Amino acid sequence: MAMDPGFTAEQDGIRRTLRELLHKRCGPEELRAALDLPGGHDRTLWTALAEQLGLPGLALPEEYGGVGCSPTDLALAAEESGRALAPSPLLATSVLAAPLVLALGTGAQRSALLPRICDGALTAALAVPGPALATALALTGPPDGDWAGGGRAGGVQARRVQGDWRLYGEVVQVLDGHSAGVLVVPAHTGGYVRSRTLLFLVAGGATGLVRTRQTSLDATRAQARLQLRDVRAELLGGGGGSDGEEADVPAALARVGECAAAFLACEAVGAGDRALERTVEYLGQRRQFGRLIGSFQAVQHRLADVYVRLQAARSAAYYAAWTAGGPGGGADAPDRPRERAGGLALAQALQALRCAAAEGIQLHGGIGFTWEHEAHLYFKRAAGDELLFGPVHRLRAHAAGEARLFERTEVPA
């Protein structure tokens, strides 16, 4: 089945409405004000996104109050949120946490959580340490190893106490972990011999849970330190013990990672596009040596290079979104391509955003480095995302390994 590069009327409507809403509600002044709020985002904007667009539940089934669109639509919406650098729980809630509840949760857990997520009343977070997030999502390597706290030390440990699950440990740099209403917490259990990672649900106000907002390079992606001190938790799904089949947590995280990579790639393309637009606008106004800066051929060449990078990254991001789940089914449907394009698309998009943001700062001159100007926020978004979901060379190396590009082939004698 070939990819259709065009957009449906519904997709165009979502993008147009979202851009108009963010233009009105998330301008430069509103953005800075939201970053200073305890939650790191404007709650009224989140409510508006839920009520007017159904954005939190855009890719969730209608039976739970969602819109019933595919991950492709959510990724395309990300391009618009990236343009505005809109601080919101969308990534943590709808891209990372909610798909895990949908894929692994019991019927009761889905019914209790997903409708509230869809209407914007409940936010969620995946409590994976920031430095290990790319590994857990299978973006830079296989999701095995000690990313959730290996063996008997580190991370979060789970054990049964009188029939209840209890969690102990600490997780740092958790996206929106300080404000989320429910946490999806990976934890080790089974002791040293049978150690395995399971997912647990923890209420945001649970006894023994201490949450502290941390300073982050990219202030538009709020992060938190979570300390779990004998916290009561609920196992996500019905397995994890002798009473049911154990969930394949690494496989579920890998599927979420593919959709997350497409989402982040589209978001980075939107941010880079807006950074380029702002730079072009500035160069068309400021004069130096008696002429507009934008009229210098060397400057035009630099802008043309950025434009070409962004266009190539946009094509890769759209393709990744399509493979993650376009018309006709999800990534595992019979008519979908089998390759995992998300990691490569994310690498290309992050590199394009970094280039657009760096050129923007350079061409704005001294003001581009100041807090008063938005140019530095785009550069911090590029650097912050690469720290969380990269780096770029590891994204590409893992994709090459998955595709077996550099395997030796035996030459017949």
TrEMBL record:
Keyword Membrane: no
SUPFAM superfamilies named in the record: Acyl-CoA dehydrogenase C-terminal domain-like (SSF47203), Acyl-CoA dehydrogenase NM domain-like (SSF56645)
TM annotation in the entry: none
Swiss-Prot/TrEMBL cofactor(s): FAD
A Pfam short name: Acyl-CoA_dh_N
Xref: InterPro entries: Acyl-CoA_Oxase/DH_mid-dom_sf, AcylCo_DH-like_C, AcylCo_DH/oxidase_C, AcylCoA_DH/ox_N, AcylCoA_DH/ox_N_sf, AcylCoA_DH/oxidase_NM_dom_sf
Keyword Ligase tagged: no
Signal peptide from the UniProt entry: none
Acyl-CoA dehydrogenase/oxidase C-terminal domain segment(s): 264-392
Keywords: FAD, Flavoprotein, Oxidoreductase
Domain Acyl-CoA dehydrogenase/oxidase N-terminal as annotated: residue spans: 8-120
Family statement: Belongs to the acyl-CoA dehydrogenase family.
Name the UniProt record assigns to this protein: Acyl-CoA dehydrogenase
